């Protein structure tokens, strides 16, 4: 989302010979030898900054607008690229644009960092770090198996909340500093598109022009009808991350990523949790085999119960000494099923795009359930399905894949296009993770999706599996509960999907996602070497267990003397 914030000075250059450094929000310095956000270190030296600025000015002066289907744009521009929204997607696009020599600005009407940094994946990971350690300290059986004795583990709620808030503040400051250090202008205020290549910033009449514009306004929590949110006893993830209370009994509406992660936090801190899920099974978005195992480990042994196949048709906050009341109806028949009384309710029913007030009507763009329609290159489409010249939309606002790193990848893809290199992002190569204890991660298709695709396109689908119980590092940690699953084509060795449940699954998935992105086949990955003993060998064994008919395609290279 967009934001409004007073920005402090972000760039400090300390010259000692040829050394340069950059200040972070905590005052610490990053030396120029560090690679930041994927940029080459030369991008952070003062000489290269001056070079970037000169190149952007030269490039901008030479840019002229083409005639568009929606009217005639300006002939000269204030910026080469203007990004509306300074979340993770907008930030990633801006850094890549600077590397490509574009004069760039970001319009932000809320706070830099967007949902992920301020109200999403960053502060939630701070809370999950606490819940993970609390589980370890309170698991007597696990500790005794390692020869450890710990007693009286407890927590300070306010200190835990401060940890999450401080982390968000630090990352927000780092993002702001990195943008300003590279010469990206941060324009404070809400961005409204006035017409082709024109944006009004804030409540003033300031109009900014740009050759290309990216919409990156993100999303907000989705609250179904009939649910009254008071921010105290009926809350969304935005409120829950503040951890103002730890309720004795909390109902979580929705059992997807958000609901699962908060169930991990609340139960570790002593709460009883009740899931309310509209579909017939918990964790409906996961591969069925993985969700079945995850339920056995993450839900059944914990202080969690659940209702499936029901809607929360009405939720009333606690007031006048009465608890939160939740009316449940059958998801199919809509008949009354039950009424729950709990201390708090967390609404984790997904997120809705934040696209109101963008001025899309000025360029004849009609949203679809709030999402901005785009093609496979993130180019915005108007009401007639035609391309809107020089306008793109990335991240949650387009609904293709509502993940922070997907938004960043889409933004980088757009920058590649506007600088002359055609690029189409393969969304099936983008991984996802749920940071429970243990973690869940995935990339590509689930087994049912892959088999449906195979039936339609006429190819066979095979499945390979390996257990964490066979991994030395996992056993050393006494964390053998876990499974890795590979879905593939046995005729070609193409990877269709990989799903992992177990210790550090969120880190392990990237070998598979990079293989899909690069088009690497299983028969080639089988030849890769993994350090022993490491968790990465879970993937090594997984790929080696696959039965592929095709031979390795990697050419044999000359031996290298060591």
Automatic annotation (TrEMBL):
Protein name, entry field: dihydrolipoyl dehydrogenase
Superkingdom of origin organism: Eukaryota
Residues of the active site: 532
Gene Ontology annotations of biological process type: 2-oxoglutarate metabolic process; response to arsenic-containing substance
Entry note: cofactor: Binds 1 FAD per subunit.
Entry's localization field: Plastid, Chloroplast stroma
Domain Pyridine nucleotide-disulphide oxidoreductase dimerisation: from-to ranges: 430-541
FAD/NAD(P)-binding domain mapped to chain residues: 79-411
Disulfide bonds: 116-121
Organism (species): Vigna unguiculata
Family to which this protein belongs: Belongs to the class-I pyridine nucleotide-disulfide oxidoreductase family.
Keyword Protein transport: no
GO annotation, cellular component aspect: chloroplast stroma; mitochondrion; oxoglutarate dehydrogenase complex
Cofactor(s) listed: FAD
Function: Lipoamide dehydrogenase is a component of the plastidial pyruvate dehydrogenase complex (PDC).
NCBIfam families with a match to the protein in the record: lipoamide_DH (TIGR01350)
Key words of the record: Chloroplast, Disulfide bond, FAD, Flavoprotein, NAD, Nucleotide-binding, Oxidoreductase, Plastid, Redox-active center, Transit peptide
Residues bound to NAD(+): 254-261, 277, 350
Subunit structure: Homodimer. Part of the plastidial pyruvate dehydrogenase complex (PDC) containing multiple copies of three enzymatic components: pyruvate dehydrogenase (E1), dihydrolipoamide acetyltransferase (E2) and lipoamide dehydrogenase (E3).
GO MF: dihydrolipoyl dehydrogenase (NADH) activity; flavin adenine dinucleotide binding
Residues at which FAD binds: 125, 191, 217-219, 396, 402-405
EC number: 1.8.1.4
SUPFAM superfamilies, sorted: FAD/NAD(P)-binding domain (SSF51905), FAD/NAD-linked reductases, dimerisation (C-terminal) domain (SSF55424)
EC top class, as a word: oxidoreductase
Catalysed reaction, written as an equation: N(6)-[(R)-dihydrolipoyl]-L-lysyl-[protein] + NAD(+) = N(6)-[(R)-lipoyl]-L-lysyl-[protein] + NADH + H(+)
